[in-house]
Amino acid sequence: MVQKAKILLVDDRPENLLALEAILSALDQTLVRASSGEEALKALLTDDFAVILLDVQMPGMDGFETAAHIKRRERTRDIPIIFLTAINHGPHHTFRGYAAGAVDYISKPFDPWVLRAKVSVFVELYMKNCQLREQAALLRLQLEGGGKTSGAEPKEPAGLLAELSARLAAVEEQAEALSKQLDDDSADAAAVATAAHLERKLTGLRRALDALEPGTGSASSVPSQN
User: Fold this and answer.
1) How much is the pTM?
2) The three-state (H, E, C) secondary structure of 127-179, written as one string
3) 44 and 75 in contact (C-beta within 8 Å)?
4) If we measure between CA atoms, which residue out of 127, 198, 209 comes closest to residue 168?
5) Strand order in the sheet with 6-10
6) Count of CB atoms within 10 A of residue 199's CB?
């Protein structure tokens, strides 16, 4: 079963949170509410999120300050942030949003279809990264355990490599389709850069598998995919 991605919705107005949930419910992911910057930071301490939708104007800790805290934490600094704002103070205000670490800055009222499409891209990228980490962890586990899995008979090296190669190929195919979609839709530069980073990691894992083919290398040459 594929685990759902979590999307963090941060807004001090309950009606805005309800509207965001209505827009994003079609993505069939886990939507987590936070009514303040402090509450958002608390949620980020324990859960991993694919993307954060962050209201700019909030009492107490506003969106810019919340984003600054998020980007200072090693655990959360790479989570994409989409700023949502009901005000528009011109280019300087928008620049402040990007300077705070946002990948996008959307003024209200916004097109629900556009917002859903933007969020879906980051959810897909997050899911592909999760798959890649799982495949890399499985590869290391299998190599360290000599091809053994809990409750199963040891596999022959050739069969193990074939299985891992097939699983990696499925992720590669999905990543390639996503990259083509980003090219066709002229997506945000941040999304394109994240997809390119994912492809580089997939290439490294593929080279590691190829190096394990008989006569080409050994397990000791497999690079870490952190």
Assistant:
1) 0.65
2) HHHHHHHHHHHHHHHHHHCCCCCCCCCCCCHHHHHHHHHHHHHHHHHHHHHHH
3) yes
4) 209
5) 30-34, 6-10, 51-55, 81-85, 104-107
6) 17
Separation between Cα atoms, residue 52 and residue 56, nearest integer Å: 12
pLDDT at 158: 60
Amino acid letter for position 183 = D
State both tokens at 153: 């008979």
> Which amino acid is present at 219?
A
Model pLDDT for residues 52-105, shown as the tens digit of each residue: 999 988 998 999 899 999 999 999 988 999 998 876 656 666 666 667 777 888
Q: How many residues does the chain have?
A: 226
| The two three-digit tokens of residue 226, written as one number | 């952190």
Cα–Cα distance measured from residue 36 to residue 23, given in angstroms and rounded to the nearest whole number: 20
Token look-up 């705070």 returns 100
